[in-house]
Input
Amino acid sequence: MARYCRIAPAVNHSPPHFNREQRHREYSGTMKGFDQSAAEVPLVFRNETSDGRAVSSSNGSFDPKASGKQGSWNQREQKRSNTGISLTPSGPWEHKLTDKYLGDVPSSSNTVRYFNRRRQARRVFIDCLIIWCVTAFICAVLASTMYGFSTITRGITQWQKYGYNALVTGCSISLGLAFAAQFNQYAEMMRWRFLAAQYRNMRDFELVLGCSSYRNTLQIAFRGWRPGTWYPTKQQIVALCWFSVFVTFNVFVALIGLTYSIDVSNQFMHLVAGEMDVANLRYIASGQQPDDGVDYPLPYQQAAANLFGQLGQNSYELGADTYTFVNANPKDRKSQAISTRYITTAATCQEVEILLGGHAGFRANTTEDQDTDQDTDQTPDQTLIWVDENGNQHTDVVSSVATGSTTWMSNTTMGGCGPRCAQMLALQTSDIRVVDDVSDSFMPSPRLWACNNTLEQVTHADPNNEGITDINALEMPDLQAWIFAGAIGWTGVCSSEIDENGTERCGDLQYILFNGDTHLSLPADVTAEDVAGTVVGFTIGAITAFDTNGPRQNLTGSDSPRPAQVVVVRWPYAGAILAGIPFVQFVMLLGVVWFSSKAVIIEPGYMAISHILKPIVDKVGEAGPLLSMDEMSDHIGDYNIAYGVRPDPNDPGHHDKTFVRSLGLIDEKEGYGYIRGSMPEGRYD
Output
């Protein structure tokens, strides 16, 4: 059976200068033989009223109809359930006196609260961690946005660009707001420790109490000078550092905009419907001609084809080769994109037998040459006699020759090998006549190659033809194909010859000699595939240069190239900022938890704070509701206060957690001096 004890009457142990109401210590009776697992625990307390009458109270409900000391009670069942370990949603300023802290000394006052430093520190950590998680989440979203858009290597659309800028701007603004909320929260937690650290006048006390406002923080930094000193106080240094850290965080957020750029892609173009600038394949010229090149002279086109071939010499593959045309933006020729149109050329070469010549005009001096009928004093020095693959003998006068070099000759007769096909010869002139020692010769005997080169029609890989309706404007006529096929031997200059009637006429061949230091001057060990590859490479090079520098035309299609914009992120800087901000802020969070847990944190609401400030209001009086803080301070006069635990002679020590201590504002004139250390754990009222 539970036993009850009477609460001892309060005894006033306050010193003479204390003007305080009587305080009561609370005790409870022991409950011997009580089963701790019982569900009903009636606890009865008795207090003395002002007239000395004992009034009982309990955790049950009192029946007012009962009389005397045997009043009836309606017991209420008390149940406690173990919910396991969970993160409490309570705020750091909630210091409830729970059953855990009641122990054997229950409380009869509903205003008594219990301060536990570890519980408050845990709640400060959880409360601040929530906003820190928001900051970390925003940084993660910002990093994901930058990474996601930077992977779009083919270019972002205009709407994607707007969306990216909106996301980055929104995240940056949200990050700044999260900083402000986090720093405001830190200040609300730490200000009570600052207020408990020393006595302050009313002006400084109010500034520190409102240090969550950056206006107050700056006022502390620039108005908190100690009279008679030139160096700043500790609170000035702390305020200035606090504001500097906040500004630094926002500066780094602004610097995120410098860690990325929206550049023009050097690999891709953005294709939209509109006008396209494409090559005009109807004629070959080094520049735009009037009337769309109608009746443009053939020799000019031949010379231009050879010029384009020399201009377009680069790497090439042996055998068949293909070139893909490019589309350009009419307003910006630098904006080019690879089209779906391509053209292919193929060449075949065969070495033929030389009967006479090939020594660059020097007379033959070998026995075999002396025995030939053609080797007479009347035989021209530049005569070349050779036999084709069918056994037919041909005689040509080759004027452009040089020892050890290659002369290319294109046949001006069309149709000899089919449509869009050109015939040509490649003469490797011997240098044996100009060297003192045969071992010094790199071309000991002349060689002649007969080649055919065919240029196919333009092929369209896109069935929609890139949205172009006039397909004929994209194709190459047979004449221009024949010119490009024989481009390696064209000069545009007619070579004269004397026919069998003694009349001078244009020969069937045009000659061109390339310098010996180019790949167009073939080496001695060249093969038929090498010669064919040289012919193909020259033709493709000519078309390449023509597509870049030749005549153009504007057509309407669906693949008009525009500059493709890509997001380029400098990750060493962006990553350092986006990872460093949450890290530094988390370190600050740990510092705030450690620093603020040494003082009792009051709820940041106006009502709770006004309760703490009641002594100041009492000194001012009920009059003067419109007085400013400066006017109140002048009205009260010399009044320095600090937030803390009021010393009590009856306090048995910090080890006693059942003693009810007084928490509030302490006047420096009360004579307690500097209050050091952390606020003790226990009950407060």
Remarks:
- The chain has a mean pLDDT of 77.
- The longest helix spans residues 158-197.
- The radius of gyration is 51 Å.
